[in-house]
Structure formats: C-alpha cells, structure tokens
Amino acid sequence: MKSIHEKNGLDAASGGITLIDAHHHLWNLDTHHYPWLKNYDPDSFLGDYTSLMQNYLPEDYAQDSSGHRILATVHCEADHDYSDEVAETRWVHQQAERYGFPNAVVPHIWFHQDNSEEILLGHLKFPLVRGIRSKPVTAPSPDQVARVQGVSGSMQDDKWLSGFSLLEKYHLSWDLRVPFWHLEEAAEVAKAFPDTRIVLNHMGFPWDRSENGLAIWRKGMQALADCPNVLVKVSELGLKDRPWTVECNRSVVLETTELFGMDRCMFASNFPVAGLKISYDQLVNNLAEILDGYSSSQREAFFWRNAKAFYRIEL
C-alpha cells in the first residue's frame, strides 16, 4: 500500500507510524469563502488562530505529515460558506483526483432545514462522500443547556431528528461535534437511531479539566460508550490556556480508550487546526507514547484499521 507521499513522488517517511488520518481539513481562501477564516473571532475556543487564516492545500498537509506513513485521509467539512455547501465537496474531490487524497469526505448539511435532502443529494453526486457533519444548536456553557433544549436545530427538535433520519436512508454516518455538556443528549440520539453509525469528534472537547468539568465529561462519554453504534476520534486536545503535553492529556486519552475500547477509537489529526498547539509529528508521537501499553494489533487498529472500516476506505 503506497502512502500519500509516495503517490505524489515525495520522500516517504523512513520511520514514523503507519496511519489513516480520520479528520483533517483543506481550504483555498482565494477561491472559496470560509467566514471564520475571513472574520477573526477573538472569543473562539481556539484562542489566537490568525495563523490559520491562509490557504491550507494538499501540499501543506503532505509537508506537515511527512514524518509518518499516511495511507489515506478523511476530509471533514471546515465551516465553508453554508449557502453553497456542495462547492466545498466539489473542490475537495478535485484535490483527491490530483493528489490521491483525501480518500473519504464528510461534508455538511443542516438537518433542520427544508432543503436538507436536496443538499445531501448534491453531495452524493461525489463518490467519496461517506458521512455528514451537522452541528446541532448547543449552549455556550453547562449551566445553560436547558435553555436550548427543544429549540429549532437542537437534538430534541422534531424537524432536526427528521433530517437526521436521512443518514440511515442513504447509508451515511454522522460526525458528532458538540461540547462535553451535550454528550448525554447525543447519546439519546444514538440510542434512537441504533443503525446509524456515529463518530464523536475531538473526544467531546474535554476543555474543563477541573474535577467538576471532568465529571460531566466522563458521564457523557460513558453514555456514548454504552451505545455500540458510536465510535470516537482521539483528536483536538489542545487547550486555550496551556500547551499540548503528554502529562496534560494522558489521562483523558486513556479514559477514552478504556471506555470505548481500542476497536472503537481512531486517530485523527484535525490539522491544520491542531497545529496551533503542536506539530503533526509530535502529535502522533505523543499519542503513540500514551498508548504504549496497548498491543501492536490494538495500536494498529487505532492508527488506521478502524478508520478504514468506518469510512469504507479502499486502499
């Protein structure tokens, strides 16, 4: 199996880890509109992300990931202009035709809007589409969750749930992205749709590492782990107020792998966003260090086999 670097005539990593990257982004700001990359939000959970406000193309990803043997990648929607959602999917497929990656694509639709199925069918004209990421309405903090429950676009909204049912109809998965104080609600959706495959993005964002914050996160993670149709991406562990270190993230990573089992966890870089806190090479090496106690077959499942199966990637 050739790596993406070999396919593009680049030097293949002599060492490093063989992997499939289950979550990264590409964007061309010269030709497409990404509102968050044009209008800086000082209140973003990312902190200062001005360095992201430039093109991130396949060549950039290949350079960042060159220390490891990347068999395939999954492109996840990057908050492209939602008035023309299919444009991002079209552009990503053009990159795949030229560079041999991404090898699976997760675009966006709004589940609660009247044109959900129309937009979905537009995405499905492109062969690499494997799932959908649609972010439900969420509260800005744990103490405000009740205020958004049941509103339009929330996970209790009948219209949102009707749109969500399109995933099962078209044999697609859901990339779930909510902060940790909404994980239990997401588990209720997972239980209501047991035949829809779901993958939690970014470990449910365990941003609050206080005892109380982690208690809320653990409760939600347990609820999702109890749903056999839910997997999890171990990704985006950067915190706004501290660096990415093994010491800081070891416990939340190991709690996640113990809750879900290594057969339901997958590596995802979230580059270039994760690059605000850590290099690609160090990210992979840090996770490998944290998971050193697992067997070689378990680590192989984590780093590439689970993503290959979940996103139906042909190598």
Automatic annotation (TrEMBL):
Signal peptide: none annotated. It holds the Pfam family Amidohydro_2. One of its GO terms (molecular function) is hydrolase activity. Gene3D superfamilies: Metal-dependent hydrolases. It comes from the Bacteria. Residues 20-313 form the Amidohydrolase-related domain. InterPro entries: Amidohydro-rel, Metal_Hydrolase, Metallo-dep_Lactonases. Keywords: Hydrolase. The keyword Hydrolase applies. PANTHER family: AMIDOHYDROLASE (PTHR43569), BLL3371 PROTEIN (PTHR43569:SF1). Belongs to the metallo-dependent hydrolases superfamily. This is Amidohydrolase. It comes from Budvicia aquatica. The lineage of its organism: Bacteria, Pseudomonadati, Pseudomonadota, Gammaproteobacteria, Enterobacterales.
